[in-house]
């Protein structure tokens, strides 16, 4: 089995990646972790029952830094090439949603504190958990994280996480933050905290100079957007018919089909998002789950399309609040998208946001809820 170091070197050799000493150092750390994971292990429960501690679970990693530094790329390489089972790579937001629903199910079936049981369930599914985009934005997550992670570590789970924030900056200014501080201490004592915060935003490099707003719709727009999509995702253009899809959990037991979903980039049509009865919860789920959204086929909306226009406003608001990058194909420039109709006055804000979302300053910001 090829390890993460060999995989990284192959990408350097092919010219896919540019040499970056900070990344190379992280690769060495991940390679060492891979090797440690393939050694003998103890599980918390077994060792307690047997009274024999055995070697502890290998120490994981908390990789943080600015946007586009290569954190997710390195974690994906590691997760793909770690010769170790069972392992699971999951977006942190999805992990927390699933955790809350398991807690609710455990409560409904009675019994005491649900957190140890839920943590044991995760530990049974994966002894290596890789979390992409760890961030804490709501009090419900903040209040359980320290006990949840303590239980995961106790059960012998190794955690690797990426984040745009250092542990000390997580949930900054959050409600009841003092109750969250034990989680920060736990992360700092149980994980190696490594900054990957070099000078280069590689994602911006890949988008640099390329327009993100394309008008009007047509073959040229389609070709330019496809080019940008394959550039951002490193997906081989020859395999374009096989770009993965996803079913996004939008809460309330509902899902949303994502026709293209790869490396934090999603592609949707205007029809799917704005002509169907979708709403704020759907848009929020998209904004939280993807750092970049491609929206194709945006028409000029007449007065008879006030519902579509209202949904479009909500969609752009959600993407803007979460600092998602938006690549859009439309029949007109922002000013001409909804020239007349109910809510035209409010639409001005959307026009202004669409403009700002094309600016270098906006594109350089990290993905995450605006402070
Ligand atoms: N050394 C490199 N040379 C060229 N491209 C790179 C390099 N490192 C990363 N990239 C590319 O840059 C893009 C951004 O990388 P990645 O998604 O891993 O960033 P990130 O640190 O996870 O950012 P974010 O915090 O926004 O999630 C990806 O397309 C990735 O393949
Ligand atoms: Mg990332």
Strand content: 15-25%
Quickly count the helices: 15
**Low-pLDDT residue spans:** none
- Tell the overall outline: globular
Molecules bound to protein = adenosine-5'-triphosphate, magnesium ion
N-to-C SSE string, H for helix and E for strand:
HHHEHEHHEHEHEHEHEEEEHHEHEHH
Distance between the termini: 43 Å
Number of strands: 12
Q: What is the strand arrangement across the widest sheet?
A: 2-3-4-1-5
Largest sheet: 5 strands, parallel
Write the layout of secondary structure elements.
Elements: H1 4-13, H2 21-37, H3 44-50, E1 60-64, H4 71-81, E2 87-91, H5 92-108, H6 114-125, E3 128-132, H7 139-154, E4 158-163, H8 181-190, E5 191-195, H9 202-207, E6 213-214, H10 219-233, E7 246-251, E8 254-258, E9 260-262, E10 265-269, H11 270-275, H12 280-289, E11 292-298, H13 306-321, E12 325-330, H14 344-356, H15 360-363
Parallel strand pairs: 1-4, 1-5, 2-3, 3-4, 6-12, 10-11, 11-12
Antiparallel strand pairs: 7-8, 9-10
Adenosine-5'-triphosphate binds at residues 17-18, 20, 23, 67-73, 133, 162, 164, 202-203, 206, 232, 234, 291, 366-367.
Please provide a written account of the structure.
By secondary structure, the protein is an alpha/beta fold. The chain is built from 15 helices and twelve strands. It has helices at residues 4-13, 21-37, 44-50, 71-81, 92-108, 114-125, 139-154, 181-190, 202-207, 219-233, 270-275, 280-289, 306-321, 344-356, 360-363; strands spanning 60-64, 87-91, 128-132, 158-163, 191-195, 213-214, 246-251, 254-258, 260-262, 265-269, 292-298, 325-330. It has a five-stranded parallel β-sheet. The protein has a five-stranded mixed β-sheet with strand order 6-12-11-10-9. α6 (114-125) crosses α7 (139-154). The longest helix has 17 residues, at 21-37. The two termini are 43 Å apart. The model has no long low-confidence stretch (mean pLDDT 91). The site of adenosine-5'-triphosphate (ATP) has 22 residues, from α4 and α9.
């Amino acid at each position: 089995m090829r390890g993460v170091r060999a995989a990284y070197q192959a990408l350097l050799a092919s010219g896919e990646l540019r040499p970056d000493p900070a990344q190379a150092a992280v690769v060495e750390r991940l390679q060492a972790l891979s090797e440690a994971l393939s050694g003998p292990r103890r599980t918390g429960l077994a060792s307690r029952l047997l009274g024999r501690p055995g070697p502890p679970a290998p120490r994981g990693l908390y990789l943080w830094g600015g946007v586009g530094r290569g954190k997710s790329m390195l974690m994906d390489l590691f997760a793909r090439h770690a010769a170790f089972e069972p392992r699971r790579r999951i977006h942190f937001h999805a992990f927390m949603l699933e955790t809350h629903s398991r807690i609710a199910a455990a409560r409904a079936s009675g019994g005491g504190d649900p957190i140890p049981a839920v943590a044991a369930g995760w530990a049974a599914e994966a002894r290596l958990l890789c979390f992409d985009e760890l961030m804490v934005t709501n009090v419900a997550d903040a209040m359980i994280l320290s006990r949840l992670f303590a239980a995961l570590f106790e059960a012998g789970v190794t955690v690797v996480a990426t984040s745009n924030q250092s542990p000390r900056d997580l949930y900054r200014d959050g409600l009841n933050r003092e109750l969250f501080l034990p989680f920060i201490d736990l992360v700092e004592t149980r994980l190696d905290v490594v900054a990957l915060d070099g000078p280069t935003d590689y994602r911006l490099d890949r988008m640099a100079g390329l327009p993100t707003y394309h008008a009007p719709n047509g073959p040229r727009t389609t070709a330019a957007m496809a080019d940008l999509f394959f550039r951002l995702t490193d997906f081989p253009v020859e395999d374009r018919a096989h770009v993965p899809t996803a079913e996004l959990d939008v809460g309330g037991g509902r899902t949303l089909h994502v026709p293209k979903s790869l490396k934090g980039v999603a592609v949707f049509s205007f029809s799917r998002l704005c002509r169907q009865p979708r709403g704020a919860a759907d848009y929020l789920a998209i904004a939280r789950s993807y750092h970049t959204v491609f929206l194709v086929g945006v028409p000029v909306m007449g007065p008879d399309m006030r519902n579509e226009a209202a949904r479009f406003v909500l969609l752009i608001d959600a993407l803007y609040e979460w600092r998602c990058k938006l690549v859009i194909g439309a029949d007109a420039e922002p000013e001409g998208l909804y020239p007349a109709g109910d809510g035209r006055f409010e639409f001005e804000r959307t026009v202004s946001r669409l403009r700002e979302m094309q600016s270098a300053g906006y594109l350089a910001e990290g993905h995450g809820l605006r402070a």
